[in-house]
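User: quick one - fold this with magnesium ion bound?
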Amino acid sequence: MTKRILTGDRPTGPLHLGHYVGSLRNRVRLQEEYDTHILIADLQALTDNFEHPEKLSHNVHEVALDYLAVGLSPERVKIVVQSMVPELAELTVYFMNLVTVATLERNPTVKEEIKQRHFGKRVPVGFWAYPISQAADIAIFKAHLVPVGEDQLPMIEQTREIVRRFNTLYGEVLVEPEALIGEVARLPGTDGSLKMSKSLGNCIYLGDPPEVLRKRVMSMFTDPTRIHATDPGHVEGNPVFTYHDAFNPDTAEVDELKQRYREGRVGDVEVKQRLYEALERFLAPIRETRAAYAAKPEQVREIIMEGTRRGRETAQATMKEVRAAMKLDYLRA
Ligand code: ATP
Ligand code: MG
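Assistant: Sure. Structure tokens for the protein plus magnesium ion:
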């Protein structure tokens, strides 16, 4: 059997550079080797956007455009819309019995996200428990590998625990998945914060036009301790250099800039200008493919519908086995 990949994104906005280095690049690299399902996780996105569901429908299309733009092949990869696979909700309910409240409360990523969203004591149960539904997403496709950014490690660990518990209780039906972290585990935001994130407004989007890209790069956070271009600067932990390392293939140029920066022989403007140029070289072909698909919304819709149809078949097959293993198929044919 060909091994499977399952991963996904929340349709809370178009995809950004963090998605690329954290997960998309691995998906593209492995799409020939693995049977790949990619979930547009609109139900998960709803858990902190339920007051504005209209935000999601638009972004489902945007996220699909980003997938196609970076080179995910619609022939190879199934793009699946989460809300159109009701079997996921069913498996989530079964999984809820296999997780304790204490475990959910320990999840460091969810804790951090709760803080960022200023939920205080009013955390929606759906949000707090989304690692369970994410475990169902991964398990229903029997994924072996989950290409994700570092923030998702607790979710994969939670999934592994649930799968082990399920298999011990009911029999070996589900597959214990492994995480595959991208070459940049967590890309910082343009504001220097720990993670570029759609919800934090510190992103460079894959579809940003050149003038927007330039503006975002030029206003990036650098070394706060450096006041004049002649002051020796810090390269480590400086997001401009983190981006150079991730997106500028001209390592000689990057090394030279780093050295001059450390010695106080180059200004922020030049370092950013070179970063802009490198990012423009990287993003131009992605932007072009994106525009070509954006001009054919019907075709994109077809790709999503077909991926979802095929993905749902897989989910239905797993659920038959799950119900049988749990002895819940008494009245079914
Ligand atoms: P939101 O703010 O709505 O949660 P997000 O920007 O965090 O959006 P997600 O859809 O939650 O994006 O994440 C999708 C995938 O991209 C996950 O595997 C996540 O780990 C990865 N990812 C997101 N941001 C980054 C980043 N800055 N660096 C590396 N990987 C990232
Ligand atoms: Mg996120």
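One thing worth noting: Strands lie at 4-9, 35-40, 77-81, 145-148, 178-181.
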